[in-house]
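Standup notes
- DV: blocked on the single-chain target, sequence here:
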Amino acid sequence: MSKPFGRIAPERTTPLEWAAALDAHPRIRAVEMEYGPEGNLSRIHVVPHEDTSGLGTIVEDFAVDSWRAVFEDCYDPAGSDDELEDARYRGWRDGITGLPVPAADMAEWADVTVERIARRAPRRILEIGAGFGLLMEPLVRRLRPASYTATDFSQHAVARLRELAGPLTAQSPDTEITVAEGDALARPPGDGYDMVVINSVVQYFPSVLYLEAVLRRVLPLVQPGGHVYLGDLRHPRLLGAMTALGHRRAAPGAARETLAARVARDLRLDGELAVDPGHLHQLPRCFPKVTEVESAPRRGAAPTEMTLYRYDAVLHVGCAKPDGGPEWADGGELTLERAVAAFASPSAVAFRGIPNARLTDGLRAWRDWGTSQADAGGAEAHGAGTCGTALDPELLCTLAEQAGRRPGLRWTPEGDDGRFDLWCPEEDGTRQPSCTEAPAPGDDAPPARQPVYPPGTEARRREEIRSAVAALLAPGDEPPEVVFVSWLPGAR
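- DV (later): unblocked, structure below
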């Protein structure tokens, strides 16, 4: 039902009257206003109104029209791609090159994902957006869980998952495999799931509010001690570097102004959701069942978009928090020799703010071409730092593992240039791994600058609200700046 929305008379300019008028807009759920020095309305912070009352209505509103259309094309058996050896990888394209991701790189990507999920040894798994079974097949074969529920919005994908279910059940007869279309999440087995997997799906969500609605629906299905795995997330602070790198490789001889304009355009029109790790680390404030959040850059040797610019997150549900945190050493001047020496000792290792060698080229391209474009969102928003003395996170982890250590990675909480933190817990021969291995970001972590929408969507929504607000103003008054936020104090 639409809400009444009409003009404010020029003399009606009190904050309460403005709030009442803006609250009547069908796209606004909550609003906070800022006034300039002359009493003019200069900025409004808007919590958008979205239909997030339940996944059924969200699916009808978004997934049927968008998500299903995307994946039906990807999973259509008639749409095979000769460049790929395995039909399971159809539709996967590298955001840097625009080309299909080689099958070997995709196989590594799947192996890394399976390894991170399997280390939790889940017994009752729900996978949302299971596709062609890239994760279901190896997880069932390896873990032989009590149950595996796989859902997808693509009919082609569901058909393929059902084909896989038969042989998998024969090989693992104690595993109850359920395949369903859409949002069949209502009846978890026993006391609930101990692992919910949402892998390489969040980028297709229409907004961060939709992600929160999905979590609100899923978390009650997770038993205490369980986890929610959010895989292959896009990092908003690194989009500029990734986009600039792609254009530099595609047209190395093009004029600087041309490339800068292309980078700005692509960032402005980007239609996929990116989620700041800092936003996820704030989820325990909104979801009491979430006791801790881990986020880590994706591992893998192949230098693709996924291993350079994406990350995974694990939400711990009702898990015990780790005792204390490490004593961080400055990683800004860390050398490979110093790292190897630290790994050789059984003592705890913790380096913070290590410059990321994998991002050097992208950051340089973004610094050279992207930051001069004001309409690209600004250097701070998209990551325009410099790397200095940089190290490869995958190489460091490999060296640590060769020394018998258990390395952990995360993005440096306050970093905009892809710096990372690395730690290894103390190895005393008796210590057992805890549920949550990652240290918390700490009180010094800055608030996340989380975009509510993908940039292309946000620009359209912002202009829609600015136009509506302009209709309320006296002739000649400048409409205020519109800033979308996912929540405001006191808003529900």
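- Follow-up: The chain has a mean pLDDT of 81.
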